[in-house]
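Materials and Methods. Structural model of Phage virion morphogenesis (Putative tail completion) protein. The 187-residue sequence of Phage virion morphogenesis (Putative tail completion) protein from Pseudomonas sihuiensis was retrieved and submitted for structure prediction as follows.
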Amino acid sequence: MAGATLEFDAVAALAVVNEAAAALADPAPMLRDIGEYLLIAHDQRFASQASPDGTPWQALSPAYLKRKKKNRDKILVLDGFLKNTLRYQVNNNELLFGTNRIYGAMMHFGGSIDIAARSQQAYFRQDGKTGDVGNQFVSKRKSNFAQWVTIGAYTIQIPARPWLGISDDDNYAIAGIATRYLMPNSA
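The predicted structure was written out as tokens:
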């Protein structure tokens, strides 16, 4: 009977398996790389003004846009605190990613904010000659006429603008990072 002999040198394969096992034993470096990637991906998301699935964020309301003084062309950006407070933290075998800003969840999921009724002093300018009171508020320093006003309770509706998460492209990139750690000689 004719035969064939196949010799298999498992040293290279065993080295890959050992490197993958070492990466799984201490995944912190891999998780830190994924955290860095997520910072970049979310920065790009704020630049594109779109949710992880690519849906553009809902436009600002005309009333808010009228009074917004800074970054009028940007949604979810007034001073940049939400975008600039994104952080990641690696603990044992987990990666935590997000913001410490309380309003981050409201911006992501949407919701309503109930404002209670209140009374306060309002300041105006009064014309010295005619006695007419202007119809715009001014600072206390610029005012020469003050009046107590009562503002009724009202609700502000915040639309959902999903900003936190990963897209399909992000999934592939994260899988690529993991692959580099699990199979370091394959790159």
